[in-house]
Design a protein that fits this description.
136 residues, mainly alpha, two-stranded antiparallel ribbon
């Protein structure tokens, strides 16, 4: 799965918790989301956004406040698609989607999920055949 195809698939399958996702889909989406978040953060810093509250007001101009709102909206928008991608990736490695709840364990859970995301595909398993190229 290619870089752009993985990101399109991320949004196309945002509530698909039943299929499989290859490792490339997970890691490419991770890179996309980090690049977008870092880009928005850099824009916010260029416009001198201060997240510190100064007398109850967010310091910065209207553009800076708009960028912060876009950052929050994007962060909220990727929660559900990311959860579904992680579940599909777990399915690809032959694990149940309920393993995602290991991520709720402070510190250790994130490391365990990261290790699971790094496993190779399991071949045909109970969650379906090997990932087929989608029609995006």
């Amino acid at each position: 799965m290619g870089f752009l195809e993985a990101y399109k698939s991320f949004w196309k399958n945002y509530v698909n918790f039943s299929d499989r996702a290859p490792g490339s889909a997970y890691w490419y989406v991770w890179v996309w989301n980090m690049a977008i978040c870092v880009g928005l953060y850099l824009l916010a810093s260029i416009f001198d956004v201060s997240i510190m509250l100064d007398g109850g007001n967010l310091a910065g101009g209207a553009i800076a406040i708009f960028i912060v709102i876009v950052m929050w909206l994007y962060s909220a928008a990727i929660i559900l698609p990311t959860l579904s991608l992680v579940v599909r990736r777990l399915h690809d490695t032959g694990k149940s989607g309920f393993f995602i709840f290991l991520g709720l364990i402070p510190v250790v859970g994130s490391i365990i999920i990261l290790i699971f995301m790094s496993f190779e595909s399991d071949g045909p398993n109970r969650y379906g055949d090997v990932y087929e190229k989608s029609d995006i």
